Known about the structure:
Blueprint: E1 8-14, E2 27-33, E3 45-53, H1 57-61, E4 81-88, E5 98-101, E6 108-111, E7 115-117, H2 124-127, H3 133-146, E8 153-156, H4 162-173, E9 177-182, H5 185-192, E10 199-202, H6 208-215, E11 220-225, H7 229-236, E12 239-247, H8 267-271, E13 275-278, H9 288-300, E14 308-312, H10 317-325, E15 332-336
Parallel strand pairs: 8-9, 8-11, 9-10, 11-12, 12-13, 14-15
Antiparallel strand pairs: 1-2, 3-4, 3-6, 3-15, 4-5, 5-7
Helix pairs in contact: 3-4, 3-9
Amino acid sequence: MAxxxxxxxxxxxxxxxxxxxxxxxxxxxxxxxxxxxxxxxxGEALVRNIYLSVDPTQRGWISRDTYVPxxxxxxxxxxxxxxxxxxxxxxxxPEGTLVTGLTGWSEYAVVSGNxxxxxxxxxxxxxxxxxxxxxxxAYFGMLDIGRPRPGETVLVSGAAGATGSVxxxxxxIQGARVVGLAGTAEKCAWLTGxxxxxxxxxxxxDDVPARLRETCPDGxxxxxxxxxxxxxxxxxxxxxxxxRIVLCGAISQYSDEEPSPGPRNLMQLVIQRSRMEGFLVFDxxxxxxxxxxxxxxxxxxxxxxxxxxxxxxxxxxxxxxRALFTGGNTGKLLVQIAPEP
Length: 341
Ligand SMILES: NC(=O)c1ccc[n+]([C@@H]2O[C@H](COP(=O)([O-])OP(=O)(O)OC[C@H]3O[C@@H](n4cnc5c(N)ncnc54)[C@H](OP(=O)(O)O)[C@@H]3O)[C@@H](O)[C@H]2O)c1
């Protein structure tokens, strides 16, 4: 039990709710007593977290009730995580097991049903990215709702992020032409280089309507939208007949104090007999094994690439969350708080 000798469990809790773009002042690091092995109840295990996830949806969780109850001031920040069982009274989770789940921004967590063992041989960083929530979101959103066909044009916003980068490649694997929207020249170069996108648009620098005309000359069949807001309105102007708009997220609006006006041109959906559909990855829980198997096969075959960026130390978690809203990440951003075994 060398890892738990200090008797202290450092955690990040909510100090106050954010206004505007989330900042480090909303959080505070506290030291809580560490649950000892003898204090575990039957069926429980103590996990030492190794990687913590930062996700745009946490901006909602710390603000208001969404599809889960809001985190209250003083509570540990709920988050995805990967870690190792260091003490156990659970037959399902023997000591040494690597697990992923929703444990929160803390060094240690007492778990029971809220984590799953990582399959043997699966890279822990992959299990927190391309084979984790963001990869699964890309898989179900693109294949179940977007349904791209060979030769169609698929546009992805937030394309160099964790979800968008996988979503675009899945469309490419289906034989579609794929165009990405991203916020820097480096991100655009990654999309059209390693990831094999047909084209990329730097939405911060380029003339977006002009570049959409150039890169999607026949219009857009599928829009995988991570961003919402004014980009969605621009894209609606170029959808084709029977287009599918996958509403995955709307990060451009998460920091708004008041709900922003919706796209003014929803009539485009009528004119083009098209549809928009939102989804949550959790709806597909029963089909996760199918997605993991297919994504793993594409990874092994070299068809699918992913990137993980790491910030070090528990203290970095609030800064990492903010980086998602300022475009500071390429691929999946994780916080590493302990070495991998
Ligand atoms: N429906 C679901 O079940 C589900 C599950 C997971 C994630 N999501 C959603 O998927 C989206 C992506 O999440 P992720 O975890 O993969 O994060 P991510 O894409 O890795 O990171 C967020 C990215 O969004 C871009 N961005 C930030 N503010 C923006 C703005 N105002 N306009 C345009 N782009 C902006 C930034 O890149 P740039 O440099 O390109 O601006 C940033 O890198 C989010 O909307 C999230 O809520 C949905």
